Amino acid sequence: MKTDDLIALLANEVVPVDRHVVAKRFAISLLCGLAGALLLIVTAYGIRADLAVIATTPLFWAKLALPATLLAGALLLTTRMARPGTQVGRTWVLLAAPAVIVWIAALAILITAPADARMPLLLGSTWRECLANIALLSIPAFIAALWALRGLAPTRPRLAGAAAGLLAGSIAALAYSLHCPEMAVPFWALWYLLGMLLPGVLGALLGPRLLRW
Fold it and tell me: What is the residue-wise DSSP string for 24-57?
């Protein structure tokens, strides 16, 4: 068989790839993950009773801003991991910046607070269940993010899995903010960030097995 004939045979009836396939898959993934987390919040945990009142305070929106900004950075990182040869670039800055800002604020609050108030600011009254709750709420988004990646072409499965886990953890923390009564910045700086990190670690461990071609 001549080379030209072989090329023509291989190219015969090739279906064009949808240019928006990554955006479509992750749009579905985000909707499913967020819907799953909100459904769990409403049915298993409940929305905090004073949400309408607390939502009028800037501190509440600052609390939501932490997982929301991390969600944006994790989404960008995950979508880049879904494409072969795509550079991560400065995406890590988008993930690191919110964490650094909230830790600076938390340290400033802890330093200026009375000594006997520092541990309550850091631990609150729900630190024991915070990690487990965020991890549980991340399960729907974690499954959805892995589904989105498995239909694409990640070439660095460990990093892609970690990014998917961070994305799921951010969605979970955002939903959990509607239930969590803690309003102290040091609490979010420690427990929210650890809660979001757990699915990321799990994704890094499972990525090479679940995302390999």
Answer: HHHHHHHHHHHHHHHHHIIIII---TTHHHHTTS
